[in-house]
Design a protein that fits this description.
With about 150 residues, the chain is mainly α. It is built from 9 helices and no strands. It is about 70% helix and about 0% strand.
Amino acid sequence: MRNLPSTGPKRAQDTVAAIVRTIFSQPDHAGAMSQLHEVARMLEARFPQAAELLEDAAEDVLAHLHFPRGHRRRLHSTNPLERLHKEIKRRTRVVGIFPSRDSLVRMVGTLLAEQDDEWQVADRRYFSIGSMGKIDALEGGEDPKELLAQIA
């Protein structure tokens, strides 16, 4: 979506971006998909490259709308992933040269395990067990309490 406005002339980029934002204001996936097709039709006459890009990436762009409303805000952004990558980069630069590939894998694996633990027990969990249960309910999956009982 960041590349879409740049497919047209500079003077029209703000207009194109504003029109495209209407897609994300829709309440559900079906509404957003129909709005996406409508926006693509509107853009096709003046900006055919933008319309084609939008149609080609439709399902990728709207994939987060298949999840429960509470999850969408977190899934729409890649900030937590970028923050995690930045932390891995910072820690690996401190070491500089690793003696072997295994040592690199051990260190990064430890960092990822720490992050997973933090996300599981922190006051502000990334996704709670209850919210993950909503996904299971959408898929007809198992009850999260039963899964916890099996693990324990």
